[in-house]
Design a protein that fits this description.
single chain, alpha+beta, DNA polymerase, domain 1
Length: 165
Amino acid sequence: MKSDAIQISFTINGKPMEMAITPSLLLIELLREELGLSGTKPGCLEGECGACTVLIDGEPVNSCLYLAVNVHGKEVTTIEGLSSGDPAGTLDPVQEAVIRHGGVQCGFCTPGMIMAIKAFHQHCRANRIVPDREQIKSAIAGNLCRCTGYTKIIDAVESLFKDFK
């Protein structure tokens, strides 16, 4: 271990992890370069586009601005952690809804968008909220999509609450 390395332990997609990292390592670098989790996309690398959104303890975070040392003791969920991991490739309901409603075009923003929607969906379900379109727009406001015009993405989020009362 390098003399400036820091030992951290955290959970990544449900799996405990311990490793030594440099203090300046960004979370997106840890995910993509050290752990090979390439689903998290580097977009603007300035925290403006949301392509790199992951969940830390269930909250959406721009991994391009988040130092990896700050995940010590926390749970990190990436887009790879949403599917069940079974051989059939069962997707998370958020992923299914976005696909079903045609909310994916080029796909670059999709992982970050889905992670933001996942956090919003969990929050709404936990608090028994059925959001309206304006609340959905507000929830995904930090995620830029240059292809879809957002209508199909918002439709997908609305569909997640059709059975919820």
